[in-house]
């Protein structure tokens, strides 16, 4: 069981962008160079959007499904072929007109599939369901027409950004925006010493990645902490201490990590951003048993309401109205101050951590987390961790797991060969500033002759 582990996340986006055309058909195979009956068009066929693309009886060159006798010529709009091979126009008006026309063509296809003469099995094809979902998000379907939306309409499953990978989502971290997924790595940071072989000195075990979690790019880091701890418990790899950054922490996790898994979650929490706290005129949160809050002027709250995830403590209106410090306490003009609290355990843990993270001892302990950044750099620069070579969350997760295995093998090989880990890079200016000669007193000046 490792004594300490550290977790962090990294973006992983698609290796290459697919063509932006949303509507493809089997007739595009005839425009490929060298394309003819019997030719190998395996690279172009999976890109097509025809409803019968998954039907084994589909005759590519006759444009007809032999099993269901559903022919595409019956519903093909006029000018369909002329709109397949196009270049995206530069004027915004022409781009919008092209989007409206593509929406009309896709709507015509969906309506043809909803007719009574259309076989029911065609409506259950995954590509058809995906096309219908995309059109609902990007077009307003009304009065028999499809109008391009100013922005996609979000649904519970999320906005589809690419038809080739419906699970890929857009993520943003500071100034970086990507399309794809996010990987979270957990590695050991304090390992016990290993019994040395004959003629060798005792060394600590190599630091290895013990857990890999892949999520959608839009999933927040704080939502993954409990999942990582659960999987570590399933593998019997729970640490005594888990070092994470602020994104993986909140007040409830500070309590649940200790109570459910016996883990001390080490990391800085967010500061209180309320304008009262910034002014340094907060409250003494006391008397949980009496269910009261005492303000800096000694007044006590008169109401205590327990909600699903918070507690509201309110002060009497006449008490706040007569107080000289009212402008420093609340902006309300006709009501008393209302204080929002977390449950007692979470509130006390949060206040204790905010006080603890100001100490030098905490900063020294938290400095251990910097090692996970080296793991990210190794995965990105040497293992291609930032690029997803496959579509879909399961395959992308498999790539992340294999990348973590490769990193572990490299570290085990270096440990067996006795190679020490690389030193942290320091700039020449930092090395010069740390030189011991700079801290020695200068020699006495000799008198000139």
How would you sum up this structure in a few lines?
The protein has 449 residues and is an alpha+beta fold. The chain has twelve helices and 16 strands. Helix 5 crosses helix 8 (344-356).
Topology:
Elements: E1 4-14, E2 58-59, E3 64-65, H1 92-113, H2 120-123, H3 126-138, E4 139-142, E5 145-148, E6 169-173, E7 176-190, E8 193-194, E9 203-204, E10 209-216, H4 225-234, E11 241-243, H5 251-261, E12 264-266, H6 275-278, E13 303-306, E14 311-314, H7 317-321, E15 338-341, H8 344-356, H9 360-366, H10 371-383, E16 387-388, H11 393-416, H12 428-433
Parallel strand pairs: 1-11, 1-16, 11-12
Antiparallel strand pairs: 1-7, 2-3, 4-5, 6-7, 7-10, 8-9, 13-14, 14-15
Descriptive account of the structure:
- With 449 residues, this protein is α+β, with helices and mostly antiparallel strands.
- It folds into 3 domains: 4-10 and 167-269 and 359-416, Ribonuclease H-like superfamily/Ribonuclease H (Nucleotidyltransferase, domain 5, 2-Layer Sandwich), CATH 3.30.420; 26-148, no CATH class; 275-343, no CATH class.
- It contains 12 helices and 16 strands.
- The strands form 5 sheets. Strands 1, 6, 7, 10, 11, 12 and 16 form a 7-stranded mixed β-sheet that branches. A 3-stranded antiparallel β-sheet has the order 13-14-15, with no helix packed on it.
- A hairpin with a 4-residue loop joins β2 and β3 (64-65).
- α1 crosses α3 (126-138) and α10 crosses α11 (393-416).
